[in-house]
Amino acid sequence: MASNLELPFREDRQLTEVMRLRVQSLQQRGQKRQDGERLLQPNEIVYRLDFSQQSLRFSGWNIRLSAPGKLTIIGTSQHWTPDLTHLMTRQLLEPAGLFWRSPEDDQDAPVKCFEADTQEFGERIAELAKIRKVMFFLFAFDDGMNKDNIDCSIVFKVAQKN
Predict the structure, then answer these.
(1) What is the C-alpha to C-alpha distance for residues 97 and 83, in angstroms, rounded to an integer?
(2) How far apart (Å, rounded) are the C-alpha atoms in residues 129 and 149?
(3) In what helix (H) or strand (E) does residue 15 lie, and over which residues does it extend?
(4) Are the beta carbons of 58 and 154 closer than 8 angstroms?
(5) In this predicted model, what pLDDT tens digit does every residue of 72-128 receive, in sequence order?
């Protein structure tokens, strides 16, 4: 017997600010990023998932976009601390989750995505949940999308213990 566990993505304002300060610091000093370093882009915000349980199977995405545009969710494969170690491009999970709503879509039309990619992405998150309590994500907003237009969570199946 399995039950569902829905985990919301939560904005991490403090981590986003630290990563923006890194970009600003490099610009002010006229320095370049470290080789392989991934800097936060202006259209990106850091989000997190907090895992209350570790033994999970990916079930699906619950993504609501209230306006046209694109949302790309990029997962990180390692727990990083920007004050000590910078986010490196090799730490980013592939594939990313890409979700979008076209301007001509009805408000109640389902959000579009690349199903195979989002399925694989969800399964990788479930695998990493086995060894993590927290996981961080970069949410990239494009084509008019912004953080006020989204409601995002991920659903897992949890095995019941007898």
Answers:
(1) 27
(2) 27
(3) helix 13-29
(4) yes
(5) 999 988 776 666 678 888 889 999 999 999 999 988 889 999 999 999 999 999 999
* Total-model pTM: 0.92
Nearest-angstrom CA–CA distance, 124 and 142: 24
pLDDT in tens, 18-75: 999 999 999 999 999 999 999 999 999 999 999 988 889 999 999 999 999 999 999 9
What are residue 77's phi and psi, to 5 degrees?
-85, -10
What's the CA gap between 15 and 83, in Å, rounded? 9
Instruction: Give φ, ψ of 69 to 5 degrees.
Output: 145, -175
Block residue for tokens 């006020």: 148
Q: Which one, of 16, 46, 33, lies nearest residue 86 by Cα?
A: 33
